[in-house]
Write a structure and sequence with these properties.
By secondary structure, the protein is of the alpha/beta class. It folds into 3 domains: 89 residues, Chitobiase/beta-hexosaminidase domain 2-like (Chitobiase, domain 2), CATH 3.30.379.10; 335 residues, TIM Barrel; 153 residues, Alpha-glucuronidase, C-terminal domain (Alpha-d-glucuronidase, C-terminal Domain, Alpha-Beta Complex). The protein is 36% helix and 10% strand. The chain has 20 helices and 15 strands. Helix 2 runs parallel beside helix 3 and helix 13 crosses helix 14. The longest helix has 33 residues. The N terminus is likely disordered. Bound molecules: 4-O-methyl-alpha-D-glucopyranuronic acid (GCV).
Length: 674
């Protein structure tokens, strides 16, 4: 008997050594039987040592020689890779460049690319490529769907989870070089001495991976934890408090990045509490950080329950302040003017601040995209924003070129996204949600990469190089964002989510803490039609866009149909481009979303032969949820809007399977503040 056990054990060992639970992310290098590569390096530093170890452990190609070369400083923290006779020269001007170059080589190997005739230079499009964690000190994560926070504040700084380093490594492998550890709805406690020593412990682990730590700060910190009378940015005692605090931070963490601030938004304190402006608040912090090369990322996500269209408010607030901000302040702007919806037009603030640095904020965590239950590949959404032409500086003024320093010389370029990472074994809650973390990193490095290339890399690294798997799965990923828009809110509909948690549909929501937290505020359905009139006859949000977009968006005929109901209130019998009525078009869109998810299920089931049991089953079961949810969305929205349109659902479309009244009773028990 013993013998038999032994044999079985030896046979299964290579496969079972690493449970296929997604914990290894895309860093799934082959584990055994390979020749160890030779790495020639006369340098030593924590980052270079990691680069060397990674290659020594996983690289199977020609010997690699490291070279540090100051002449390559034009590549910033990028690198050059060049095949040279029997070896490969990897050179960079910074240590981190060698690390990124090492991961580039490993990516080539994992994806089956040619590793012999290499000749390339890579330099990142953005200086700061940063994740924003909305992690609270009690380890809950605002809008987090992958378990509790990675940061175990109660154990830090003495106990260091191995996941801290694994996190840093994953980020470095895609070029992410910065992280904001805590929620923008920030607890002042993060700045207490006790917490700062914990932050230092994390910063020390991340540093060799080229990652700088930043913190979200609460504008009332001087008053709440400092015992200062108020937190007025013009009060010298307040400034003094921040000066002392920042000195303390830099004593602990000499390369600390700076602060991220959500002020005077959704109940957060800010300079306006004292009659001061956002510029007064941001500049005070910027001045304090300046001697240490620290920066302030000041969020433009501000809106108040006023009469003014919520979509207009960030622009109204910030444009008059243009030119007043210090040069180490960068305004962090959500991709759209409302809030990370499945589809929004780009935020009109991009390009409108002519003398102020601007950066994009994306959301990787799927607050409005089915949490970690729905497979939605977000590179397509990110690219849609980055490639949008604002026309601010003439044709070709894309958001990518405006924010990466190409169009306007910038001291500071950055790009950010709200992380989807938590304590879950597979990090992101859904195996495919890992692709969105990956895609953000790759696009932050190079926003010109096509979504398809990124998907291709990720699939090959994470699952399989087999064409039979790569092709169909890539098709799922590439169409998934549009499919989700179709079953949730097509044609420019937005924010018709259930109250607070934002998971399912609640288009009938008409009472909430404030009008702009209801769904009816956004869709404005009535017997005449559907959609928010943002033309000159309505809220005139179109006027915030540069010509010709103000006209393009402001005219029904030229407005892209995928944004029609964002900008216009459209009659139910309006004829769309394909001559369907608006009502019919809406029905077909919802139906197409449902059909696409059904197709994903069919395709995925055929993938069983190419993938491991655990991940196959887990994705399969998530797709079931997604398919059920898609039908829920379709029925809820069509049955509800039908009470206004009074038209039949086209007869060739699958019939609703729910009663509207039953759907209205669904109340999910998920707590969130708005
Ligand atoms: C961190 C939305 C979310 C909030 C989030 C806010 C923000 O309103 O629902 O949870 O708060 O955006 O970005 O500040």
């Amino acid at each position: 008997m013993k013998h038999i056990y032994l044999i079985v054990f030896t046979l299964v060992l290579p496969l079972s050594l690493f449970a296929e639970d997604g914990s290894r992310l895309w860093l799934r290098f082959s584990q055994s039987g390979q020749e160890k590569a030779q790495v020639i390096s006369k340098y030593k530093s924590p980052s270079i040592d990691i680069a060397r170890q990674e290659l020594a452990a996983h690289w199977q190609g020609q010997p690699v020689e490291f070279q540090l070369d100051k002449k390559l400083s034009y590549l910033k923290d990028g690198y050059r890779i060049k095949s040279d006779k029997n070896k490969i020269i990897l050179s960079a001007s910074q240590d981190a460049g060698l690390l990124y170059g090492a991961y580039h080589l490993l990516r080539l190997q994992q994806t089956g690319a040619d590793c012999f005739n290499l000749d390339m230079e890579e330099s990142p499009k953005y200086d700061i490529r940063i994740l924003n964690h909305w992690d609270n000190l009690d380890r809950t994560v605002e809008r987090g769907y992958a378990g509790y926070s990675l940061w175990k504040w109660d154990e830090l700084p003495n106990t260091l989870s191995p996941r801290y380093e694994a996190y840093a490594r994953a980020n470095a492998s895609v070029g992410i070089n910065a992280t904001v550890l805590n929620n923008v709805n920030a607890s002042p406690q993060i700045l207490t001495d006790e917490h700062l020593t914990k932050v230092k412990a994390l910063a020390d682990i991340f540093r060799p991976y080229g990652i700088k730590v930043y913190l979200s700060v609460n504008f009332s910190s001087p008053k709440v934890i400092g015992g200062v009378k108020d937190s007025d940015p013009l009060n010298p005692d307040v400034r003094k408090w921040w000066q002392d605090k920042v000195k303390e931070v830099y004593t602990l963490i000499p390369d600390f990045g700076g602060f991220l601030v959500k002020a005077n938004s959704e109940g957060q304190p800010g300079p306006q509490d004292y009659g001061r402006t956002h510029a007064d608040g941001a500049n005070m912090l910027a001045d304090v950080l300046k001697p240490y090369n620290g920066i302030v990322m000041w969020r433009a996500f501000v809106y108040n329950p006023t009469e003014e269209d919520r979509a207009k408010q960030a622009y109204t607030e910030f444009v008059p302040l243009d030119g007043q901000f210090r040069d180490n302040v960068i305004i962090q702007i959500k991709n759209g003017p409302v809030d990370f919806q499945p589809r929004e037009p780009f935020n009109p603030l991009f390009g409108a601040l002519k003398h102020t640095a601007e950066m994009v904020e994306f959301q990787i965590t799927q607050e409005y995209l089915g949490f970690s239950n729905h497979l939605v590949y977000l590179a397509s959404l990110f690219k849609e924003t980055l490639d949008s032409d604002t026309y601010s500086d003439g044709k070709g003024s894309t958001i990518a070129r405006l924010t990466d320093g190409t169009l306007r010389p910038a001291k500071l370029t950055a790009i950010s996204a709200v992380a989807n990472i938590g304590e879950d074994t597979n990090w992101c809650g859904h195996h495919f949600a890992q692709a969105n973390w990956y895609a953000f990193g790759r696009l932050a490095w190079n926003h010109e990469l096509p979504s398809e290339t990124i998907a291709d890399e990720w699939i090959k690294m994470t699952f399989s190089n087999n064409d039979g798997f790569v092709k169909p799965v890539k098709e799922i990923m590439l169409s998934s964002r549009e499919a989700t828009v179709d079953y949730m809110m097509p044609l420019g509909l937005h924010h018709i989510f259930a109250e607070n948690h934002h998971y399912g549909p609640e288009p009938w929501l008409s009472e909430a803490g404030r009008p702009d937290w209801t769904a009816v505020y956004y869709h404005k359905a009535d017997s005449a039609g559907l959609g928010f009139d943002r033309t000159a006859a309505g809220s005139n949000a179109v006027s915030q866009y540069f010509p010709p977009l103000d006209k393009v968006y402001g005219t029904i005929e030229s407005c892209p149909e995928n944004l029609l109901l964002w900008f216009h209130h459209i009659p139910w019998d309006y004829k769309m481009k394909d001559s369907k009525t608006l009502w019919d078009a809406l029905c077909y869109k919802y139906d197409s979303g449902v059909q696409q998810v059904r197709e994903y299920q069919k395709v995925w089931d055929r993938m069983e032969q190419y993938t491991d049991e655990q991940r196959f089953r887990e994705v399969q079961s998530k797709l079931k949820i997604q398919a059920r949810d898609a039908i829920w969305w379709k029925d809820a929205c069509l049955l509800y809007f039908q009470t206004f349109s009074n038209r039949p659902v086209p007869y060739d479309i699958e019939r609703p399977v729910h009663e509207l009244e039953d759907l209205k009773k669904i109340k999910l028990d998920m707590k969130h503040h708005n």
